[in-house]
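job 3f2a | input accepted
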Amino acid sequence: MEKLITVVLPSYKSSKLVISHIKKISKKIKIIDIEKSKEKKLKKKIEKNYRNTKVYLQNNIGYGRAINFGACHVETKYFLVMNPDTIIYKDTIKNLLSAAKKIKIFGALSPDQIQNKNKKYKKKIKEEKMLDGGAMLFDKETFKNIKGFDDNIFLYYEENDYFHKCNNLNLKLYLIKNSFFYHSQKGDSSSAIYNNSKEKYYAYLLSGWHGQWSKFYYLKKYYGFTHSLYKCLPNLLGNIIQLFMKGIILSKKTEYTYFKIEGLIASIIGLPSFKRSKYDKN
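job 3f2a | predicted structure (282 res):
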């Protein structure tokens, strides 16, 4: 089993969760951590204490691009992407691999969100149109052939985009009902540990910017510019009205709205997803 799979962890300022996560995975399984905050101390600590783990320090390149980067360093047939704030159980990986061998060709497999591990399911494999992105198993060659995640998306909608692409290519997505995991939170930066409240607040503002940018980009990619504008224009006008009602002068009550407006306009006029945290290391 260990020779078939690598665990890929895209992480961002979540050192405690990453180390806790590594401890729960068999030392015989290779782990790749893509840490997007250039934390040299974390790399040194992990690689010293966990010889099965390789840490790559990157700029904050985004969730999808981090997975793409990690996939390039995978040497096994399969790789399992997991958020640092997920928990897997004793037979999670074994049952995922068992399903992968049966299915053979697929876009992605996901374990089931934990509800009742003792329940016996009639169908252990269920086809879905979308999966929970907290834990996903990929076949390396298939992932490589379809070029993985869209590098243009920094945050939000990267999984929607990947699933949409798989559906278009008739690469099926499967939920494995006898394989379980627990995902405590949502979002790439939800598990981050910030240095201060200002940094945390700025991450909140960025979530508004990227949420709007990625939504329009995703819709435009698959449904065209006119449809995307039709879907997003009411939200844009609503935010502009809200901004004027609260007062044009930026304050904590209006900054989030402003970031959302800016992100959507940037996407509409074709600018890349450029906004980053001013607290990230260069």
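job 3f2a | The radius of gyration is 20 Å.
job 3f2a | closed
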